[in-house]
Amino acid sequence: MKKIIASLVAASLLSFAAVAEENEGLSVKGYLRAGMSDTIENSVYSTNKWVQGGYFGGGTRLRVNIDYTKAFGGVTFRYQVDPVFDTESVEIDKKSTGNIGDVNTSTSEKGGATKDVRKSSLDFFKESNVKWAMGYANLLDGQVIAEAGIISDRFTKTGGWEDTGIDGGKGFRVVVVPKAVAGLTVAAQATDKYADKYAADDDKVKDGKALEGDIKFDEKIFGFSAKYEAKPFFVTAGAALAGYYYGSVGLTAIENLTLVGEVFHNATDANKAENGDNATTMLVAWAEYTGIEKVLAGAYSYINLCDGEYSIEITPAVSYDVNSLLKVSGEASIYLSSDDKADTYATISPAVTFKASDKATATVSALISTDTDQAKHAASAGVRYNF
Question: Radius of gyration over alpha carbons of the chain, in Å?
Fold first, then answer.
């Protein structure tokens, strides 16, 4: 049944994209990529990540962007489906299972034995599939933009490898683009992204003034951001009063060169709960050069910091368009950590892409690891279609 639904959804979106090409102001774009991979050593088949690596890599995904734009305003919408390919722990009964051998087991909080099992699914109807859905009105000749819905930051994102802002919450946002200060954009928003909810034991719930699960109207719903862009550079900054902050600096002076540094600090309650009541900081650097014909050369790096511990990833990559039908690429990643239990290791990911057209490609890739306990050798193949 799910396969039938997936086929109908894909067919409908392709038809919608064809109609959009004939309607001024309406744009429907996106892609479908799908394939398979096999971890060579233990023969685990997966349809999740099938283009190996971090720079050019990716997994099965359906993404659709719909935009309707006029001078007075418009609507923007993104729908995206990614498969779940995680693990979860379930309790087991040793009496019924007998000798469990090499099964990855541990002890639960209740003292019982648990094992890790694969949790794999593809759900087309989750609320989280809608990444943004908002309408906007351009006021005062576009100097003030009012936005409402599931918010996406269209103006003050970091512009780097992560390229993100304070996205995803439902609410209202005002963007100011003053003509008096060329290159400056400022924004303020009130959304439920980091908001607290009333619990059953809150006084207002007990007094009947609020219901359990209602959003609390306090400082955690507010966020502010800004971007300034001039000819040689740009700079961004953002703050959600719930405890999320970001900033970036980018170089724009050199043609065909992208050079951006980003910093993200997350001290929100939810993030601290996942990290032993500690805030986390992430530093990201990205460089890419496309000034050589048919060649793309780039690299990114991540430094993650939490409670005095760190992890680092550095990934250089290069691709070469051999001709109109063939592209080859390769990337290498090195992973370092302050964790004594996690050794430094590296991976290499070569790939060959066959181009049927600008819209349709097929890719064969591999991943070779120096530590198969942390990353398995893998071989992959799949197809991407852009519409």
Answer: 24
- C-alpha to C-alpha distance for 223 and 174, rounded to whole angstroms: 11
The CA distance from 234 to 261, in Å, is: 11
Q: How far apart are CA 117 and CA 97, in angstroms?
A: 15
pLDDT digits (tens, 9 = 90+) for 253-305: 999 999 999 999 999 999 999 999 999 999 999 999 999 999 999 999 999 99
Q: How distant is the alpha carbon of residue 14 from its chain centre?
A: 24
376-387, pLDDT tens digit by residue?
Answer: 999 999 999 999
pTM of the predicted protein model? 0.85
Closest CA to 33 of 380, 360, 318, 364: 360
One-character DSSP codes across 328-366: EEEEEEEEEES-TTS--EEEEEEEEEEESSSSEEEEEEE
Contact status, residue 300 vs residue 277, Cβ threshold 8 Å: no
Structure tokens at 151: 């918010």
